[in-house]
Amino acid sequence: MRAELRRRLWFTLRALGIYCAAIVLFEYLLVVVYETLGTQTLGPVLQMLPPGIQALLGNENARLLTPGGFLAFLFMHPFVLVLMSAFPIAFASGALAGEVERRTIALILTRPISRRQVAGSVALTMTIGVATMCAALWGGLAMVTRIRGFGPINLVAFGWAAASGAAAFWAVGGVALLSSAAASEAGRAGGVSAAFTLASYVADYVAKLSPDWRWLKRYSLFAYWDPQGVVARGGVVWSDVAVLLGVAALTVLLGIVVFDRRDVAV
Amino acid sequence: MSNAEAVIDAVHLTKHYGRRRGIEDVAFTVQRGEIFGFLGPNGAGKTTTIRAVLGLVHPHHGRVTIFGHPASEIDRSRLGFVPGELSLYERMTGAQLLDYLAALTRRPPLRRAALLERFALSRQDLLRPIRHYSRGMKQKVGVVQALQHDPELLVLDEPAEGLDPLMQQEFYELLGELRAEGRTVFISSHLLWEVERICDRVAIIRDGLLVTTERIDTLRQRSARRVDVQFAQANDATAFRPPEGVTVERVEGVRLTLRVPAERTAAVLDALAGRQVADLVWELPSLEEIFLAYYRRDPDAR
Question: How far is A25 from chain B (nearest CA, A)?
């Protein structure tokens, strides 16, 4: 299994590096935008936004205008969410369904390595990759705020926000792994996972728009990851983290079982 | 052969893909030290059978044992596999791929150096990414990865596809050497001349059903042979009445070509007795003719 894990990690490094660099660059750009516009300009702009867009921003306007509140919003920015979801979905889809589609899986499965080990090495690489991206999210923020002299911010609270983010994107990766384990085409596996993630995000957003739709919240992964709340409180809600870790563990486990039992027609 | 050890034992293998039949009640045994050919056109069930043998698909009925163990429980380091429509990791170099697969196999790649030399793969070739390889080079690497750890059983699905004639020759010689060393080879192919040349026994599969499993020489002996008779006079050829079961394929002047089932040989000789025969040539059928004869038969007749 060590050789398999080493190969997966080695050939993921470049993509992972690009994702991490994009996150840090985006953090830098957003801080520059905040500094350039200043609260004098941003305040009235935020007040003019329709309620639907304000729901997307999450925090109340007064908190958004503080450096800490603004950076917490950055964690929930759609661009960051897309990047953070894209890695586990693309990696997990390509690793199992993609290898079945390309037929390379036959080279592995006819060797003394079990299917559980193959799927397990994919899960482990995905876990390490997501953790690295969350570390980049937090590390980039620490670096950018230091370089730009931006603050004051509570880096420990942001550390908790990033750590709970890892749980959220492990859950996204778990769903992607399950979908990939059952599929024979990377595109189909990736499409199902992306649709699930998007539906989860939309459910969370719609739940924020009206009390009538609040019931949708419990069905969304993103309802259990609230970086703005974590930064405001200075700590995580452990029950939310437990839900995310539970979804991640369950879907990975199911993915391993499904891959172990399926037919691999290569 | 009956005392030999069965390396692959497939019993009542059945696999359906939805409503489509994959294979039905396929059963055969491959003995240690033999080259066993598995024949059939595309879609006949060859690849499904190979998948079941390798444990890649789970049969609905039946079982496969390899080295006496269920296919899912065998020590796969004893196995070498060249897939049909071979696909390799394009971003790796040839050397990285061979090292990686050797590490997965957990057996030292004892044969690698000799195989690389034999298939004319240089060190420089192996340092290039596989995406830059020609089809033939990829196939050579495919053969090396399957054999480098000196497996006891080789499963080959159309292994010579993409190899140039010289390399094909080299490959068949290698298979002969492996047989001499006691290795077992299970080879699927639609190139009948190559199977005829290298295999000890063959199985023919048609529409998912195994039609026959036999030694090639027995198959040839048992099949109808072609008899060319050259009479001294042309009217003897036209007047000849073939015995029951024998068919006239062609009459051309003094020459007559008959198709004679093995059990009707004596009847033909009796019928020719008393006529002036200038020449008589008996030809055993080629594997291709046998194969086509099986395929032309009415499926309900089996």
Answer: 28
